[in-house]
């Protein structure tokens, strides 16, 4: 939409943060409408420098613009199954969670990926996470009702945890999806002889080089002589 405005009116809207914010809200509204209709219109009066903006977008164009993002959704599903060491053919039910699962193309790709399996919509997509959180809260509170007492919850690390070693390399101590709490031990050696202390830099992420991971903290430990 920004590129279309710039092209039509020869005016750079990107520096107008208020206008970009209004346009983002309008695009979000259009995205939601395209889940139930095949085309919609984005209209904003006096968007930038008094210029009105209007454009029509179809569901087909929306799907084409976001094709790479939709494909990443399937890559994420594949990654989850791989981490769980589970074949998609043994999945009993596919529950849609989150507002974006209402997008027809997302549902189509998911259904194709799971070999035509019917997608479950019995839980409100916007409330599914809250349902899970409430069940966990009940378990933590000690609720022993029939509905929750036999449920087992595992909290895991979403990303690998490790420390930086020589060459800015990431040495993973706790791989992602490890149930927590957990404890890991590993022996490391100093880079130089007679060091009095070692700096420990902790990172979170999956990249081989720490510069591409998320820094969590730094501390020092004394090296016994």
Automatic annotation (TrEMBL):
Q: Which residues form a coiled coil?
A: none
MF (Gene Ontology): ATP binding; ATP-dependent protein folding chaperone
Query: Per UniProt, which keywords does this protein have?
Result: ATP-binding, Nucleotide-binding, Stress response
Stated name of the protein: Putative heat shock protein 70
PANTHER family in alphabetical order: HEAT SHOCK PROTEIN 70KDA
Check the record and name the InterPro entries matching this protein.
ATPase_NBD, Heat_shock_70_CS, HSP70_peptide-bd_sf, Hsp_70_fam
Q: Which lineage ranks, top first, belong to the organism behind this chain?
A: Eukaryota, Viridiplantae, Streptophyta, Embryophyta, Tracheophyta
